[in-house]
Amino acid sequence: MADDFCAPFAPCPDIDGRLLVRQTFQGPAVAREEGAIPMGGLALHGAELRPFLDVFFLQRWVVKEACYAPVRSVMGLAPGETVTIEVDHREQVEYSRLVQDAVDRRDEVRRTHNRTEEYRPRAPSGGGGGDGGGGGDGYGLDDAVGDVVGAITNPIGAVIDLFGSIGFGSLGLGQAVGAIQHTGDNTMKVIQQMMEAVKSQQASAGLLEQSLRRIDDSLETIHSTESHHLTATRTTRTETVSQRIRRTFSNPYRDRSLELRFIPVFRRMEVITSPFRGVLGLALNPGRIAFPRDAAATRFGNILQRVVADTALLSTARSTALAAAAVPKAARGAKPLAVNAAAVATARASDGELAAHLDANAATYAPRVLAAMQAEGARAALHEPIVRLLGTRTARGGGGFAPVHTLDWSQAMADGGAVKVPFAEADAVAKGFGLGASAISAVAGILDTLKPGRFETLLPQPRRKEIRLFMGTHVEAVAGNCVLADLPPLPG
């Protein structure tokens, strides 16, 4: 290439894009509180603690050859006619946006058939069955829970969440109705059964197979959406770097037409998906989050600013509260000033409107509140309900370890409407749950299985799928076949 500038470009090997696709699984509740739980000045009205497993799949998008589709449309130009048209030309495709958009589309379809589940206190009577994570027996997967989270920046590319969290059934644990006291043995039993479901190669029970089918569905959605470029109207919502090039064509022939053929061009992609790693820990699923009814706008203004959709309501509550605080108060024992009483009444009315708004939108705002508290650095407040549900009492035979020592608190994060904390090292997990020294090797084996390099061996062959992405429109000019006879001579 350096010596012959007229030679064609040589193909570049190993050109691909890489993504991480995440599926979150949650086991049945291992701790549940139905009363009020403090959370940094706020209150949770009920909460559950569940083991969670984040399964990450590495997805490689390998670039293959380009190909023509059938002719989409044809335009004929009469002799001497000139036309200016715009042609689509895509310069860059962001694979993470393609996948996220496909997941969002399929999630919208699923939400029309499946209700979104959230924690609700159980009635004092009624049968056992599955807990909030799902009904049914064994390892059956329940409906999707939670919202799809936007892409997270990652050195590999991006992390795409696949249909939020998925809950297990009862796993044969015969869970009680109402409050559940946490025990290390019960939590370990749930974790072991979750791992058995991960390792299962049965399509009906294996969590990897279940997730891969969802990934395949998303790729089918991408393929279908991209194929819509065969029509005259572009229907994709995916963000891409593209432009419309304006081109002018003139028919140079006097005795025939000029035929313009519009041919879509596609790029063939091979998408290779394989397990990458897993993260195991405990997730707090909160009930309704309640703010104090007095002065919430001033005490939690930074958090509410990230949460409340009605900005005018929040602004009014804050301004009236500040105005009431600025009014001078009457001396001790004196009659309250009329202006002070009016300001206080106005502030209380605004507080009441804000409180009613927060109560009415409690289910919608709960994930936003958790994310806002994390953004504001209120990590201790997010940890407080988990510590309460776990308990701080030293485990029997744990050598001074308590259940709170089983978690790596530095990695805690608000994610998808839950607060997720991964487990710490195997030694701390076994001792904190009071499992004894003999269980350390079992816990270590579970955590080692989830590490990169070992986790991918759970699926011997990666999943391969081909899709085609729209590149642009090729315009081909062809002379017409019908020749006009007896044309008058040109003037002059």
Q: What does this 3D model show about the protein?
A:
Helix content is 30%, strand content 31%. Helix 6 runs antiparallel to helix 7. The strands form two sheets. Strands 1, 2, 3, 4, 6, 7, 8, 10, 11, 12 and 13 form an eleven-stranded mixed sheet that branches. Strands 5-9 form a two-stranded antiparallel sheet. The protein contains eleven helices and 13 strands. With 492 residues, the chain is of the alpha+beta class.
Average pLDDT works out at 74
Largest sheet: 11 strands, mixed
What is the overall number of helices? 11
Termini Cα gap: 51 Å
Query: What is the C-alpha radius of gyration, as a whole number of Å?
Result: 31 Å
H and E order: EEEEEHEEEHHEEHHHHHHEEHHE
Assembly state: single chain
Query: What percent of the residues sit in helical stretches (DSSP H or I)?
Result: 25-40%
Shape: flat
Low-confidence stretches: 109-157, 168-176, 230-241
The computed structural class is alpha+beta
**In percent terms, what proportion of residues is strand?**
25-35%
Give the total of beta strands. Answer: 13
Q: Any descriptors?
A:
492 residues, alpha+beta, 11-stranded mixed β-sheet, two-stranded antiparallel sheet, flat
Quick take:
This protein has 492 residues and is α+β, with helices and mostly antiparallel strands.
List the helices and strands and how they pair.
Layout: E1 16-26, E2 31-39, E3 42-68, E4 73-77, E5 82-93, H1 95-111, E6 141-145, E7 152-153, E8 158-168, H2 184-199, H3 207-227, E9 240-250, E10 258-290, H4 296-299, H5 301-307, H6 311-326, H7 338-360, H8 362-375, H9 379-390, E11 413-415, E12 418-422, H10 426-432, H11 440-449, E13 463-479
Parallel strand pairs: 1-8
Antiparallel strand pairs: 1-3, 2-3, 3-10, 4-10, 5-9, 6-8, 7-8, 10-12, 10-13, 11-12
